[in-house]
Design brief:
With 210 residues, this protein is of the alpha+beta class. Strands 2-1-5-4-3 form a 5-stranded antiparallel beta sheet, with helices on both faces. The protein has a two-stranded antiparallel ribbon with strand order 6-7. The chain is elongated and about 95 Å long. The termini are far apart.
């Protein structure tokens, strides 16, 4: 018996799910990652058996992909085979008991150069962690409040008028519109004005310089 060519182990070891299809969508070969994920997400046996037609499966509406995403993929497969586009890539969402998952699906043709494609290579890369990180970043950004433009401020009491034409202290306004927090102290000028008997302490040199 001839040993398996070295590329096969590398092919099966990839973290990407890979399926090789004929031009009509019949599954010719899959790697272990494709088979394992098909079982994990309850897509076996119709998704991962050589001889089954993957495109027919997507047309059957029995899969767990969003209908619009499946339809778009099916519409682009002929364009890839005809050479109208070199590759089709799309993000696919799948709701499964293990939790929501996102995949980057890519469809590329294969065959002899200069000839019509013999079939398709479909790869699915799990991008769930990336999508979660993006969602977290968007959530964090939505909570970052910034101040822009001209702020109406009272020339006498220094209150600020907000978007609802309500006047509030600078402190209250900043708490509402930023993530700043305040701790209270008294500046040297106010100490000299309000507590002159303690003002002498302000003129003492810092410790270590005496």
């Amino acid at each position: 018996m001839n040993p398996s060519p070295p590329w096969k182990e590398a092919f099966h070891a990839l973290n990407q799910s890979i399926a090789i299809l004929t031009a009509d969508g019949t599954v010719v070969y899959i790697n272990r990652t494709w088979a394992n994920r098909a079982r994990l997400f309850g897509l076996a046996p119709l998704w991962d058996r050589p001889g089954n037609n993957l495109l027919d499966y997507l047309r059957s509406h029995k899969h767990r992909l969003k209908y619009e995403a499946a339809q778009e993929l099916l519409e682009h497969v002929p364009l890839v085979l005809d050479g109208a586009i070199p590759i089709y890539a799309a993000e696919l969402y799948m709701a499964v008991p293990q939790g929501d998952h996102w995949f980057l699906a890519e469809v590329t043709p294969y065959g002899e150069e200069g000839q019509s494609p013999q079939g398709l290579v479909v790869t699915c890369t799990d991008i769930t962690r990336l999508k979660e990180q993006i969602r977290k970043m968007e959530h964090d950004l939505s909570h970052i409040r910034t101040l822009r433009g001209l702020l109406p401020i009272c020339a006498v009491c220094k209150k600020i008028k907000d978007e609802q034409d309500l006047w509030s202290t600078i402190e209250a306004y900043l708490i509402k519109h930023t993530h700043a927090e305040f701790t209270h102290d008294i500046c040297p000028d106010c100490i000299r004005t309000l507590y002159p008997k303690y003002a002498a302490f302000l003129d003492l040199p810092p410790e270590g310089e005496q």
